[in-house]
Amino acid sequence: MFEETFMTTLAEKVREELGGNYVVESRVVQKEHATMHGFSIGEKESCIQKIIYLEQACDIMGSLDEKWELGDIDHESVYQEMLAKILVKNYQQAGKSPCLFGIENLISWDELKQYVVLRLTSDREYAKQYLHWKVSDLYAIAYAEKTDCDYSESIGITRKLADRFHVTEEDVFSIACENTEKNTILVSMTGALDSCFCKEPFKDSDNLFGSNCLCDPDEMMYVLTNKNKLFGAAGILLPSIQKRLKDFLKEDFFILPSSVHELILVKAKNCMKVSELEEMVKTVNKTEVIPEDRLSDSVYKIENSSLCVAKD
Question: Entry's InterPro entries (predicted)?
């Protein structure tokens, strides 16, 4: 969408807005299911840089394409200057947030490992950037997430980062699985729907994995997620979680990828055909789920302790 000359010129305008003590470099960043254009901005003497995305600035201004229909270069120059001011403002606002994973804060693996968990994605190019393994038509990646009050920050665990702390891929995924298991919960569909109206994490009392909880024979669907409602779909990969689900449900079930944040578990008995479930998942993904939260259009099941695509 954005030509190299446009990005270069805009980077220079951002640099002029900030002053000579800043480094501004254009970047193309592969996000999950999307390619974003942005600028890596930071002070020259600092090892910390923040990426500010051009698409977000354009959303504030409205469609540039419509504004450039006249083809007047003066118009383009004006809008570049306006974009530069918005990018600088976004950078300054980002600077007010605490840098939870700043380079200077990453002291040791012992300090970081408590935040390392699993995340599921279907985006192969996104997964390739980080330590990952393939599961059916999905990819499990390791990433660290830390929350401080109302601010949350996450970083993917790359080979370079693992090497820095002298830990193996096996070490990373071992602790990621352990932490993911601690946070994974099962809630009723009613409880999940009720929680949509509040931003608070799930309470321990919501978790049906509790020792005194019994499966309601009339309840057809449950939701697997985590306490914070963020990237909770990955819990299904763990054999310990699979066993808990089997012990609780006491029958076979299908897995619908509601989003990267949660999975819907549907009891297989008296359920519709897999092909019908697939159509339902595709429709919901297309009409209700934003692209960056979509996980897959497939329907899954657990077979021999492995996640696999279900078929009729």
Answer: DUF5688
Residue 133 sits in the same domain as residue 161:
yes
pLDDT over 70 (residue 66):
no
On the question of pLDDT at 198 being above 60, the answer is no
Place of tokens 């078929």: 311
Residues of the domain holding 140: 103-177
Query: How many independent structural domains does the chain possess?
Result: 3
pLDDT confidence band for 282 (50 / 70 / 90)? very high
Tally Cβ neighbours within 10 Å of residue 270: 6
Tens digit of pLDDT for each residue in 145-165?
775 544 456 778 999 889 989
186 plus 211 within the same structural domain: yes
Name the burial class of residue 119, with classes exposed (0-12), middle (13-18) and buried (19+) by CB atoms within 10 angstroms of its CB: buried
